[in-house]
Every structure is written in C-alpha cells, then in structure tokens.
Amino acid sequence: MDRKDTMHRVVIVGAGFGGLAAAKQLRRTPVDIRIVDRRNFHLFQPLLYQVATAALNPSDIAYPIRSIFRKQSNVTQVLMGDVASVDPERRIVRLADNVESRTVESSTVESRTVESRTVESRTVESRTVDVGSSLEYDSLIIATGATHSYLGHDEWELHAPGLKTVEDALEIRGRVLSAFEEAEARPERASSLLTFVVVGAGPTGVELAGALVEIAVHALAHEFDRIEPASARVVLIEGAPHVLPAYPEKLSESARRQLEGLGVDVRTGSLVSQIDEQGVTLDSGERIEAATVLWGAGVTASPLAKALGAPLDRAGRVVVAPDLSLPDHPNVFVVGDLASIPGVPGVAPAAMQQGRHAARQIGRDIAGLPRTDFVYRDKGSLATIGRARAVADIGSARFSGLPAWLAWMAIHIFFLIGFRNRLLVLFSWAWSYVTFHRGARIITNRGPGPDVD
C-alpha cells in the first residue's frame, strides 16, 4: 500500500492567515495536507485599503498559494474553488462544481531527517478533480473568514461597498478616482462628488479616511483645471463614542486628533439610518450628500458556518470548544474570524495563533497526547491614519505619531509573504513619502464616472 494512502489526511479550507499558519505548523508532521481556497493566492488583507486608495497594486499584497508551499512536501494538493458542504459524520468535504485542481509542484524524490523522523520529498503527479467531487479527511481545519455585514440592510451594499477582497478594493479605487474625474467634467456637481463618507471607524475605516484625504490634498494636487481636489470632504461615521473603539481610550483620542488634523470630519455617536446613491442619512435626521460611500462598520462569518450545523453566535460565528474543535466533532477545527471565542479579536495575529494551535492538536492526536486549550496572546494593535500618523498599543507601550507609523510599516513589511512583495511595497512607500505621489491610479473598472472622451 502507498505510504501516502495510510497517512493522516488533513484538509484545510481557506488559505488566509489562519489556514496558512496551520499548514506551515504541520510541515514536520507526518500528514497528507490538501488546501482548498476560492482563490489561487493568499491576500495580505491589512494592506488591502492601500490598493483601494491607489498606493499599491493587487499583486503587491498577494502571493500564489502553490508557490508558498512548493517546497513543503506534505502539502500534496491545492484546489481552487468553493466548498459546498461539510459532512462531519462521514468526514467528507463536498466541493462546488467550479473547482479546478492544481497540484503543487514539489522537488524530486529525496529523504531527510527532521526531528528523528524521515521525511520523503516527492514529485506529485497532476490530477484533475471532477466537478462536484469530495475530499475525505481525518482532520479538518476550516478558516474561511468573514464577509461584510450590513446589519440587516443588505440593500446598502449596492451603494456602499465594503473592503474584503481584491475586487472590492478595485471597485473602491474606481469609484474614488472616477469621482474626481466626473467632478472635473461636471463642476456643478463637485460638492457631492467630492464628498466621501466612510461608515465605521475601526482600523479599516480610519485607514481609508486618512488615505482619502491624502489622495485629495497631495496625490491629485495641481492635476485638475476646473476643480480643487484639496476641497474634497471626508466624513467618518462611528456609532460608538470613540474612533477605534477596541483600542485604549487614550489612543482612540489620539487617533481622532490626528484624523481631524488631516481634515477628516469625524462623527462619533452617530448611526446611519439610510444609504442610497445620493448619500447617507443619519439617525439624527441629518442628510449628507455624497457620491461615494464606503462601508467598514460590520462583518459576519462566511456562509460555510451555517453548513456545519454547529451552534452559532449572534454574528454567525461557530461556537467552538476550548481546543478550537467542534464540540460534537473533535476532528473538525474552526479558526480565525469564523470562530466564536470570547475575548479574542478578529485580527490576523489571532487567526495565525489559532491556526497554529489547531495544527498542534492534530499533531498531539497523532502522537497519542492529550489536547491543550487555546490561549490567546495579545501582541498589541496598530492602526495607521496617514503619513507619519498612527497609533500603537504594544505590550505596556502605547504611543502615536511618527514612531507608531514606523512601527506599523516595519511590522507589515515583516509579515508580507515574498521578498519581491516586501521590496515593492517598501519602494512604493518610500517613493510616496518623498514625492507624495500614488503610483496605482489607473482606473480599470469604471466607477460612477461619466462617459467622457
């Protein structure tokens, strides 16, 4: 019998931060890993807002999944597609009918000793997975993340795109840049066209608001004849009393001062009651006319959560046991934004810790050792507001301004995957800092702009 057929089979659904961390943690464990993701690349979401605001290109913050694991011999297959359902009783993952198979390339046959075990690196033959096929597993890790939540008003999505995918970022970029182009063509509408509303003052909302001001004041300065880009108005709306409500109050207040110093109109303690193509209405009755509204106010777990048949919390996240497994199915782990874990924020470092913990439990199962409970270790939080403006909460240190901005840049460069990506992002940031220019201002998908030759 082929050794591969007798190995413990691990299926990982989702190649975000949690899924990647789990697969890498298993690199020295005698398992057969298969990864399923609807994309063929890993996306570094913390920098997605910079794609949306023309500072970076999508390829700068994305890296092919197969390239990530080309030297990890126990990752035997990467599948691009959606998961239709999971059958925990039969231990089967059913794939949707749009799945394409791309088996990762590995090196030629060689053996090496790692931690007293002989690990064989082998060439895996390419195989095509039939549409609607299934994957059997011994252990399953689900890390499909979250999507936008419009708080019961799904109709708002048409007028206020969120920011979770590359497509979202490119749509937002198109809307923002097209607003300036249309204002140049129709200066009588410049007031509403150059008003940008960001709903939600978490890290994404704060970063978007600051970047929008920098586009208007610096990147587009002196490039239009009939409008003044610096006259653009950016309104940031937050229902909580403070921006960055999950951060310490001192840093939240610092962030607000920095935002207002940039010229952002910050509205805390305000809720949106209506969004349409002309703008937003607040719960106070105030109307803000704006051609561009961006959403960063809420997320909900991915639809796969319901397919598991496990208990869910109010946000649609899966309630997990202390070891991150399903209470009734201990061989199924849920990590990242999909998992409901009290006191654990929905951020990349938490997802990575959860992914590694789930992988360790699989290793302990194989070794016949008892499992351990997940313990989240808060390594701090950072949020950037603009050029030399940021806030940081790292351990016992809380600081803001230029030092926080430099720390934010260093940490994000460190966690980017791929030397090329790190180099390109670092160069783009350096160029932008020196020149105030944003090099990714090409409109490839038309936003709300006019048909003007």
Total number of strands: 28
The radius of gyration over CA amounts to: 23 Å
**Which percent range fits the helix content?**
25-40%
Structural class: alpha/beta
Strand content: 25-35%
Low-confidence stretches at least 5 residues in length (pLDDT < 50)? Answer: 101-131, 448-453
Placed side by side, the strands forming the largest sheet appear as 8-5-2-1-12-24-23
What count of structural domains?
2
CATH superfamily of the largest domain: FAD/NAD(P)-binding domain
- Given the C-alpha coordinates, what overall shape results? globular
Tell me what the CATH architecture of the largest domain is.
3-Layer(bba) Sandwich
CATH class of the largest domain: Alpha Beta
What would you note in describing this structure?
There is one protein chain. With 453 residues, the chain is α/β, with parallel strands linked by helices. It folds into two domains: 3-147 and 300-367, 3-Layer(bba) Sandwich (FAD/NAD(P)-binding domain); 152-297, FAD/NAD(P)-binding domain (3-Layer(bba) Sandwich). Helix content is 29%, strand content 26%. It has twelve helices and 28 strands. It has helices at 3-6, 17-25, 48-52, 65-68, 166-185, 190-193, 203-219, 249-262, 304-307, 348-367, 402-415, 419-435, and strands at 8-13, 31-37, 41-43, 62-64, 75-80, 83-87, 92-95, 100-102, 110-114, 117-121, 134-136, 139-142, 146-148, 195-199, 233-238, 265-268, 272-276, 279-282, 287-289, 292-295, 299-301, 318-319, 325-326, 329-334, 339-340, 381-386, 389-394, 397-400. Strands 8-5-2-1-12-24-23 form a seven-stranded mixed sheet. The chain has a four-stranded parallel sheet with strand order 16-15-14-20. A hairpin with a 2-residue loop joins strand 26 (381-386) and strand 27 (389-394). Helix 2 runs parallel beside helix 10 (348-367). It is globular.
